[in-house]
Design a protein that fits this description.
Length: 265
Amino acid sequence: MPAHLIVTDLDGTLLGVDHALTDETVATFRALAARGHHIALASGRHHRDILAFRDRLGVDAHIISTNGAYHHDPDDRLIAAHYLPAELARELIDLPRPDGVRLNLYHDDEWVIDAEAPGLLALHAHTGFGYRVEAPTRISHDGVGKVLYIGEPDHLAELEQEVSRRAGKRLHVTYSMGNSLEIMAAGVNKGAALTRLLGTLGLSADDCLAFGDNLNDTEMLALAGEAHVMANAHPDLHARVPQARRIGHHGEAAVAGVLRERFGL
């Protein structure tokens, strides 16, 4: 069988409800890699936060991190980095926020947050990745891959409107979860990163299988020849990618199940 590229989101997709990989998922990806298929992990997480999952899978995998702002190859070489314009990053840092909304920034090597938020660390319990607290006035606005606001959905909706009013098409705005408003430079998304990766590998979109569950997966799923949306997906994702196949729940290792059936494992 010709080589394919299999690209998958992590939280809500490849990872279970405990944000971990099942043994079935690990065995499936190792079998696919052994057959010569290419693997890519595409997530809103920071590159350093994804490494533990790639190590657990035990396969060579490209890492598309920070919603496409960064691409590292299987040898951890940085292939591409796309930053927010510094003046826009500063404006987002200084933007007034409702009480309880946490400001987060992803730089090349770290996650910076404006105040302690220990509840956020549960998502990263399997990787050990954590934040550094810094006052907004001291946060660097250079080399920012993503600005992330975390808070109540109604508060984030207000922020999203204000960001759109101020910056318009100069930014790419999306959600990775209902409480996570994510902002990158214009043109930065998982689909754009996937397009570049397919070109590097000499493959077409028809050779790509993609899996996702949330709005930040829209462009990636729309591009892939074989797109799959999780049963637990954001309700708006189905409408955005109507051609995608609906599959099972991430808590049931549905990605592994589909891949085992698709490739006869």
